[in-house]
Amino acid sequence: MRYGKSAASIVVPESAVPVVDLAARELQYYVRKSTGAEIPIVSEGSIPPGPGGRIYLGATNAAAEAGLSAGQLARDSYHIHTDGDTAYLVGGDGDGDPLHKGLATPAGTLFAVYDILDNDLGVRWLWPGTSGEHVPGTNDLVISARSETVCPRFRFCGLRTNRPEEILWLRRMRMHGADGMTFGHAFGKWAEKYADEHPEWFELTCEGRRRPGYSMCVSDAGLQRQIVENWCAERSRNGTRATVNVCENDYNGECCCPNCLAWDGPEAPQPRPSYYADSHNVSQRYARFAMEVLKLAREHDPEAEVAMYAYLNYVFEPVGMKLDPALIAGFVADVFFPRTPEDHEWVKQQWQGWHDSGATLFLRPNYLLNGYCMPENWARQFADEWAFCEQRGMMGTDFDSLNGQWSTMGPVLYVIGRLHARPKAGVDEILNEYYSGFGPASEQVRAYWQYWELYTLDHTDVLQDGTDHWTTYAKDAYKRFPPESFDPADELLSEAERAASDDPDAAAKVAFLRTGLDHAKLTIETSIAVAKAKSDEERKAAVTKLREFRKTLTDPMAVNVAHNFFSCVEREKASGWPE
Ligand SMILES: [Zn+2]
Q1: Burial of 294 by CB count in 10 Å (0-12 exposed, 13-18 middle, 19+ buried)?
Q2: Number of domains the chain is built from
Q3: Residue 360 lies in a domain
């Protein structure tokens, strides 16, 4: 059905929840941008008389009369139903803020609108903010005839960020939270609370000392009982919590007590070099711990689930174990991109092993902490990991974090986002979408990013020299990207600028990439100046020059200055940047 320049309306319920309000504004905005037509948003009691298409959003009476009830829908699911010149978009919606950073508010109607914008209008969001929008022009919004119910592929999925433009972008990529899922380092406060009374719940060092505040003595039955007791107490307070969180603190599992050691399996093959090298494998210990807790929790609730991490020295596949699907493991293989082929295979093997054990997995990567503000392009390698996991039981994602370097890691970030909206799409298809967004410069932009892709994969050794390197990236960034590495990229981007020169939208998008390249080059100059400076004054002068340049940046999505600070200045001692 055609809408747009014909007299159509967006119809919302009399008292629409914020999700539906946002859905209506998004639809109106992109239809205006695409067709030039302003479709009014009206509430159901004030529909203007006369002909014209109607697009009903949310739990309207009209949708209910058409047999489309929001009440039957799971959170974040939606119906799209067309009937003549009427379309109904009805979602499983919550009444909270759709742009809350935890993506906790169910937003089915909003996702239905993004489905239409994506599939019927061809809108693309190459990066957050208006400069990243690609909106093909058309005469009318045409919603293809359909009647379907769409359920989210994942139970929860997202990238962690506080920036509002990025949260909106995550929604456009159909990311959402979940009910009753609790995970994250669980024992941070246990030392304070229990160390005096129950020192036996905390790791025993190999020197024979209990050490509260690090890892736990997970084979201890009293610890397991207390975890479940606390979970029961919390459930009776808030009524809904379903998951028992046993994600270990941010440390290796180190307990050396005889019981814990007796739970361990054989040492595991490890990628080298990495910080797993010579790690004692405690995967079997932690998997058994989670299973013991699950058993106890099921005495209170047969539907209980236990959340753990497969992380640090318990990331290794739990060979020989039969686990339960109610054991939900966040897989955190800290082998960052770009990877050697051997490392890449190793990561996949660990996922495969956890999957084969029967546990349910979600992807919980740290690799977006990395990359600094440099043009790293490992989109294809990431997409290969994604496809592998997606076909092997991936039930969700939680990326810590979103580095927000949209001008220098655009293809990587776009591919990650787009795979959340279209989990089975091929990487070439997605990259083609991204390049197409640059209009007449698309082929030149493709060549630009292909240069960085080849550069990235050819320099795996210097780009991937230890997991913690993201904290020291600034210090020796020039070793990873020496000034001469920018010369071919400069030339390719100039070609893109020439190709885009008659198209203001494409020119603005190429200029966005230029900002990132100029900033990266200046950052490299700074890292060289800091490394070679003979005095604090020289160092300060170099950093000041970079700071002054950063003040001229107008689009906060081009360079995430806060992330640069996070990965270097705040970690001054490790990185050597003066401040
Ligand atoms: Zn122990």
Answers
A1: buried
A2: 3
A3: yes
Position 224, amino acid: Q
Compute the C-alpha angle 364/370/375, nearest 5°. Answer: 125
Tokens of 317: 């596949």
Q: Is the dihedral of CA 488, 489, 490, 494 positive or negative?
A: positive
Of the candidates 364, 379, 409, which is a domain's last residue?
Answer: 364
Nearest to 246 by CA among 323, 200, 308: 308
Cα-based angle 199, 200, 204 (whole degrees, multiple of 5): 95
For 525, residues 6+ apart whose C-beta sits below 8 A from its C-beta are 483, 542
| Three-state helix/strand/coil letters over 69-99 | CHHHCCCCCEEEEEECCEEEEEECECCCCCC
Distance 256 CA to ligand 1 centre (A): 6
Do residue 127 and residue 244 come from a single domain?
A: no
Residue 541 has pLDDT above 80, yes or no: yes
Q: Is residue 116 within 8 Å of residue 86, measured between CB atoms?
A: no
Q: What is the pLDDT of residue 72?
A: 87
What's the rounded mean pLDDT across residues 103-120? Answer: 97
Q: Are 235 and 139 found together in one domain?
A: no
445 and 550, same domain (yes or no): yes
The whole-number pLDDT of residue 566 equals 64
How many whole angstroms separate alpha carbon 117 and alpha carbon 120?
6
Task: State in Å: Cα 358 to ligand 1 middle.
Answer: 25
Instruction: Quote the tokens at residue 500.
Output: 């885009």
Same domain, 560 and 467: yes
Looking at the structure, tell me whether residues 216 and 123 fall in a common domain. Answer: no
Ligand 1 centroid to residue 223 C-alpha, Å: 10
The answer to the question of residue 382 being in a domain is: no
- Residue 417, Cα to own-chain centre: how many angstroms? 7
Q: Beta strands 147-150 and 78-83: pairing type?
A: antiparallel
Cα 295 to ligand 1 centre (Å): 19
Q: State in Å: Cα 328 to ligand 1 middle.
A: 22
Q: What is the 3-state secondary structure (H, E, C) of 165-177?
A: HHHHHHHHCCCEC
CA of 468 to the centre of ligand 1 (A): 28
Whether residues 143 and 242 fall in one domain: no
| Ligand 1 centroid – CA 222 distance (Å) | 12
- For residue 235, what are the domain limits? 190-364
Going from the Cα of 259 to the center of ligand 1, the distance in angstroms, rounded, reads 6
Indicate whether 566 and 443 sit together in one domain.
yes
User: Is 372 domain-assigned?
Assistant: no
Give a yes or no: residue 519 inside a domain. yes
> How many CB atoms are located within 10 Å of the residue 491 CB?
12
Model pLDDT for residues 185-236, shown as the tens digit of each residue? 999 999 999 999 999 999 999 999 999 999 999 999 999 999 999 999 999 9
The token pair that represents 501 in the structure block? 């020169």
* In a shared domain, residues 147 and 206: no
- How remote is the CA of residue 313 from the centroid of ligand 1, in Å? 15
The rounded Å distance from CA 63 to ligand 1 centre is 58
CA of 216 to the centre of ligand 1 (A): 7
Other CB atoms within 10 A of residue 342 CB: 10
CATH number at residue 29: 3.30.379.10
